[in-house]
Amino acid sequence: MDHAAVLALFERDLREGARPDGPGARIERVGAVVRRTAPAHGWNGVVGSALEASTADAVIAEQTAYFSGLGREFEWKLYGHDLPADLGRRLVAAGFVPGPEETLMVGDVAELTLDTEPPEGVRVVAVTDRAGVDLLADVHEKAFGADASRLRRQLLERLTHDPGTVVAVVALAGDEPVSAARMELVPGTRFAGLWGGGTVRDWRGRGIYRALVAHRGRIAVDRGYRYLQVDASGRSRPILERLGFAALTTTTLYVYRPVR
């Protein structure tokens, strides 16, 4: 895989050419910024930017004013190759709080190991309704220790109104949900994004996460997608590398919460 070429394609298709993906979502291109606005329970933020050092602070101020005017918390998704090179420092100075740095990893499906199955006694089931969403959200809360109320609403809306753009699965050991993940399919591009893969603590280290990556990868192949992309944590990166994914750059979410 030509890493530079694939990163350029990622930029063109998923950042510069971002598309609205969910009820009420809207993509706006304002000067050098591509931003996504959505209802308060959705994801609001800056998807991409091409800033000059001389005007970056002013552009940041414009975006904070815009989202603050909507009363919305929002995120600025910063990639390691974004300019200016000190954009992260500028965001912090403007009141943003950075999350953990992750690694953008991409795999060409023709080069990935996608024949992995879950361990004995564990089966993978599709999430298609409210009951399935509740199972997935419960796993998310246990695996990540984070509230999943927004995820519940967002995923149920996608499955109801635009089911062809999202795939969600839960791994069950008997009747116990032990792992879950989703995949977002971007029409008109060659990329499918893997998101939210998490396993409850007592079931980690048994290959379930790896199996869910492979399961979603096979679905992406069947639907004609060429690349899988993941924002990988330090825990998942080694697993993805063994499956054939390559690290292209880093990514960090900077969160801005308006003063109320």
UniProtKB/TrEMBL annotation:
One of its GO terms (molecular function) is acyltransferase activity, transferring groups other than amino-acyl groups. Pfam families: Acetyltransf_1. Keywords: Transferase. The keyword Transferase applies. Residues 122-260 form the N-acetyltransferase domain. Transmembrane segments: none annotated. SUPFAM superfamilies: Acyl-CoA N-acyltransferases (Nat). This is GNAT superfamily N-acetyltransferase.
